[in-house]
Design brief:
The protein is an all-beta fold and about 140 residues long. The chain is about 0% helix and about 40% strand. The strands form 3 sheets. A 4-stranded antiparallel β-sheet has the order 2-3-4-9, with no helix packed on it.
């Protein structure tokens, strides 16, 4: 599914983001999101609401990487991750899939498409469909 460029909402200047640190933002409908500038220069946006603690704190989470196992002959790959600052559950920042539920029920998070154009971070107002349909 391709989202029209004019459907993305301006959030901030890319230069306002700090690598590997989250920033909270509000979408026009009042939805809180967490925006992350990764070390490779890419930007990710996910819901701000931590589904395990119930608090809006994911922008304060820890960014890292996780080696996803390959299937069949496919080699494994590193994926960017986010760990909750509350109970330390971890998610894949590309898909929202929970990687470590901390022994609890696996709950994914919503992921928003992001583009950076002319130094401006722009986020899709609606998240991508959740991998498990539970975000």
């Amino acid at each position: 599914m391709t989202i029209p460029a004019d459907a993305f909402v301006p959030i901030c200047a890319a230069s306002a983001l700090t690598p590997e640190r989250g920033t909270a933002a509000l979408l026009p409908d009042g939805t809180q999101i967490a925006v992350f500038l990764l070390d490779d220069g890419s930007v990710r946006a996910v819901q701000q609401h931590d589904p395990y603690s119930g608090a809006n704190v994911l922008s304060r989470g820890l960014v890292g990487t996780h080696l996803r196992a390959g299937e069949g002959e496919e080699p494994g790959r590193l994926v960017p991750t986010l760990s909750s600052p509350m109970y330390k559950q971890s998610w894949d920042l590309d898909t929202g899939e929970v990687l470590d539920a901390g022994g609890g029920e696996p709950l994914s998070i919503a992921v928003h498409d992001v583009v950076v154009r002319s130094g401006q971070v722009r986020v899709a107002p609606r998240p991508r469909p959740a991998p498990g349909g539970d975000a």
